[in-house]
């Protein structure tokens, strides 16, 4: 595979159509501040969701509404992925306002309460400005602009200020980003959307590092090897505390109707793609989270056991491709290179 080529079987801006999955994707980008957010909402109706948490340094909102036993039964109106660390969670109120104005949300008395689970990445440094954070107005705009087609990838939305490969210090990192991909098996279609902001490296399907911690002499440090050969994270980055502030956030969407428990299991299974392509992942310094969504199924239409292994395998495949696309389409800035830069193109 050439250095600048997209992964096999992935789909980018041209040809991506999520309308058959019932979801629309919207970005809001603050280029000057190097931050942004991405929303995934139902096109014109609610979705059903599940979630799996892999990292131990998460920043999130309303994840409990996706638990199978919650009163909402996994019903969700939108999911928001945002920069700004914990500050970015405030932006979800803009998504809620957009939904409430349209009467979309969990019915409560004479009104509705929109259900918008959210998760954050830390992008307050090393690029952009520490005081630049996504706002409610940005989330409202992203909801308004959301579309199931022509989804922008790379340094956009929640991927605007992300970086990867910070174990050797944030200034030796490379640019992360936002990516999406589709995988189909028979009549089942699964999409994956991901924001990559990892401490570790991103690998291609062959296991080769394509973006990550850069060695001073050229090439890559290989973060996983560094850690397994006696180096501790503190020793590797003693001069750079920013290296421990990381997160990869993903959403997988199934065309097959699933109940809340099956969606939770799908989110957990999709994590295999995360661990294959980001090394290391799910650490004490990561806030890695995977959401799983599908259309709100008609009564009696779900069969959690039907094709479960196929759906899970497709989710892993799609997430792997989306992770690779996120870095391949990311543009460098502020001294941190990206694979979409001319100097890194094939």
Walk me through what this model shows.
The protein is α+β, with helices and mostly antiparallel strands and 346 residues long. It is built from six helices and 18 strands. The radius of gyration is 19 Å and the shape is globular. It has one domain (19-340): L-amino peptidase D-ALA esterase/amidase (4-Layer Sandwich), CATH 3.60.70.12. The N and C termini lie close together (10 Å).
The CATH class is identified as Alpha Beta
Question: What's the CATH architecture name?
Answer: 4-Layer Sandwich
Task: Let me know the average pLDDT.
Answer: 88
Give the full name of the CATH homologous superfamily. Answer: L-amino peptidase D-ALA esterase/amidase
Strand content: 25-35%
CATH fold group? L-amino peptidase D-ALA esterase/amidase
Report the major sheet: 6 strands, mixed
Rounded to the nearest angstrom, the radius of gyration is 19 Å
Principal-axes shape call: globular
Strand order, biggest sheet? Answer: 5-3-18-16-13-12
Q: What is the helix/strand order?
A: EEEEEEHEEEHEEEEEEHHEHEEH
